[in-house]
Amino acid sequence: MNRKTAYSATAILLSLVLLLSACSSSTSTTAPATSTENTATTESTATERTLTDAIGNKVTVPANPQRILASYLEDPLVALGVTPVAQWAIGEGNTQGYLQKQLANVPPIDSTLPYEAVLNTNPDLILMDSAEMVAGDKYAQYNQIAPTYVVGKAQNNDWRQELLTIGDVLGKSDQAKKVLADYETKAKSAKEQLQQQIGSESAAALWVTGKSIYVVSRNLSSGDVLYNDLGLTAPAVVEEISKSGEANWQAISLEKLTDLDADYLFLINSTEKSKEEITSPAVWQNIPAVKKGHVYDFSADSSWLYTGAIANGQMIDDVLASVLKK
Fold first, then answer.
1. Residue (of 187, 168, 154, 207) closest to 26 by Cα position
2. Which letter does DSSP use for residue 233 in this model?
3. Helices (H), the chain
4. Pair (44, 118) in one structural domain
5. What is the count of structural domains for the chain?
6. How far apart are CA 222 and CA 312, in angstroms?
7. pTM for the full model?
8. Is residue 189 in a domain?
9. Where in this protein does the record put region Disordered (predicted)?
């Protein structure tokens, strides 16, 4: 989303990022799916396959779908070299900014997926993020437009499994495995560089909006990248707050902010203020990262509020460029 529209769109984005933890990244390993979840349940011919989605629907997937609608699943699609017919947006076309290099010419579609808007995209396959998106009679409506496959919450909670699931549905399993392998190689290399540079020093990611400050959870969203993939140390405050709820980003009080013992601070800035203006109040001054000048800010257009192979890869680039810079 553009910085100038941050205020109008932040409230909607807050509700999605904070409350829909299904759109998060978890380090827990997803167990092999059962027959009601498994994307690999193939029953038909080589030209088209009938798969069972996460909520038990039998879905006939075209052999080579050309017009795929996969709202809020654009990251795995793009990672697999697929351009969707429309891209997820909130408000007046506020899209996922970090994907716009790849999706600049893809029209937006409202995140609520109105029936007429979906119909107008003329899809030949619809991928739905979760069961909530097809609640009530919505599945039947969408399925009248095109075969509709629900990826499911279990896969949403593990971006790696989500990528593999979508790769399987699209007949791109080998590409999905390569994307994962490349990501793991990148993360391992970055982790080694950071270990050499900063050792066990701690880091935290804070999302600053017009009225509130949020800290990323230990094992979700960008927290998963910082602490699990890159091996950075989570401050005690992050550990404590992470245990208090299931949201990707959780509100941090000013009292807790003063206790934040982070050597490096990554700010996701949804305000019009500079990082210097944000961190100038006394409540910020005891944070080691502020004292050392180790504060790095990124706009809400960046990938830090999202998750996926592309989003997480960009976060790794951001961390390395910030921490390792001379």
1. 154
2. B
3. 6-19, 74-79, 100-103, 115-120, 138-145, 153-156, 159-169, 173-198, 221-223, 236-242, 254-258, 275-279, 288-292, 309-323
4. yes
5. 2
6. 7
7. 0.86
8. no
9. 27-46
Q: Which CATH number is 246's domain given? A: 3.40.50.1980
The residue segments making up the domain with residue 94 are 3-178
Q: Which string of DSSP letters, residue by residue, matches 140-181?
A: HHHHHHS-EEE--HHHHT-HHHHHHHHHHHTT-HHHHHHHHH
Distance CA 166, CA 155 (A): 10
Calpha distance 293→259 (Å, rounded): 17
Residues paired with 215 in a beta bridge: 206, 250
Q: What is the pLDDT of residue 156?
A: 78
Q: Exposure of 6 by Cβ count < 10 A (0-12 exposed, 13-18 middle, 19+ buried)?
A: buried
Mean pLDDT for back-to-back runs of 10 residues, the chain (326 residues): 36 53 41 36 62 97 97 98 97 89 96 97 98 96 99 87 97 98 99 97 97 95 97 97 92 96 98 96 97 96 96 98 87
